[in-house]
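Slide 14.
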Amino acid sequence: MNKKTLFTAIGLIFIGIVIGVTALTGLQFTGIGSAQEHKGSAAIGNATYTPTPAMIWLKSMNQAFIDVANIVKPTVVSIDVSAKTSTARVPNDRFHNFEDEGEKEGDLFRFFFRPPGGLNEMPIRGSGSGVIISADGYIITNHHVVKDAADKGTITIILDDKREYKAKFIGSDPLTDIAVVKIDAQDLPVIAFGNSDSVQVGEWVLAVGNPFSLASTVTAGIVSAIGRNIGIIGDSYGVESFIQTDAAVNPGNSGGALVNVEGRLVGINTAIATRSGGYQGYSFAVPVNIAKAVAEDLIKYGRISRGYIGVQIKPVDATAAKALGLSKPEGAWVQQLVKGGAAEGAGIKEGDVIISVDGRKVSAPNDLQAYIARKHAGDEVVVKVWRDGRERDIRVTLKPRSDEQQIVSTTKPEPNDTAPLKLKELGLDVKDLTEADKKRYEVDYGVRVSDLQPFGQAAMRGIMKGDVILEVNGDKVRSVSEFKSAIAKVKSGEAALLRIRRADKSTQFVAIEMGKSD
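Slide 15: predicted structure.
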């Protein structure tokens, strides 16, 4: 091959390589063949589509949610807590919580402050949420979020714009699970307060917080119930009248905002109903009217100056309503008076049913508790009670809670050798009191419950073995025979009202329907 032919061949090979590379490059970017395969342009999407008027209307409502989120997010903060302790209970399951000392694995209702996973012995660390309530740095949150750092530890606040501050613990109220902390800052965005008394089942609400350390998370739902008592605070003086919603909240949302469609704060997110530790459909918030009253006290006094009526109460069910002569089961049924308390001094009696306070209907005990929780010692309230078949108005001046605690007797009743009266219909046996019984229970009369039938009427209504039955429908019973006579007066289908004495010296009313089988 001569040189000319060789150079020509080399040139053709080079040109082929360039064309090949160009073709391959085209394949790399287009993903399909050569550019010659694409002729013309395809119309993508429906350019003539027009939303319906209903869609346009819905979009305007959607804008309201966007506006609320934009207004509220800057007022909600993230709270990181670090407590100096070497005995922290920090589980490996990040969804589990450890704030409630009485909590057991598998409890249905839980606080949802989020601890990180880790070893069982390490300083407590966790995260929650809070809401800015003043331009100069006061922030409201949950007691269970910051309680471990109250005396020792640090509280770090991270604002929506990522600025960080160390916070000072101002005070907290375990009975409502509300706390206040403060940062040294000025001109902060402040949440607008709503009125939780006007919240209605079915209205839209938004929850804003920091679940799983995901800052500024917004979820929406409706109010699914109000005045909910879930028994999570674990104190007989605990105030539980939660707003229940189906807005999704999770560990880390504790202390965050629950707002209405006007962007006004109506609750502080506090607990969830869960079997897994995470959100499973329902969450609970402290009503803002309670939270606000607590926060104002903590800021002004550094403590709570709450007033108390001084009663132990329980709900009225259908059987109790029948025994009490009420047209329907509602109200707070007074079981016992606190000695020297406001109720005793005002003339309220054991067995009264509180049906309203200051003109507000009391459907259940937590209605009364939630309203009184906003009052102070020295405030006067008008309590309407149901007694002996009619209503009475009683003025009560609230008193502070006494710090004195009653000593509960744990001594078991001694055996009574007298023959018991067996009442099959009620599901219990009773005996006459011995002198030892009278001394132990501090009573002069009554009959002692010596045995109970499992799932019988008495057991199902809350009577326990060892209780002393003092009265039947207001009549004192001094012996088994008197008890039998008193019960015989109650016709089938009617309810008997029993006043009982517990081993801890407390008294209580129990209603039992005659002729009813549980």
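Speaker note: DSSP finds ten helices and 28 strands in the chain.
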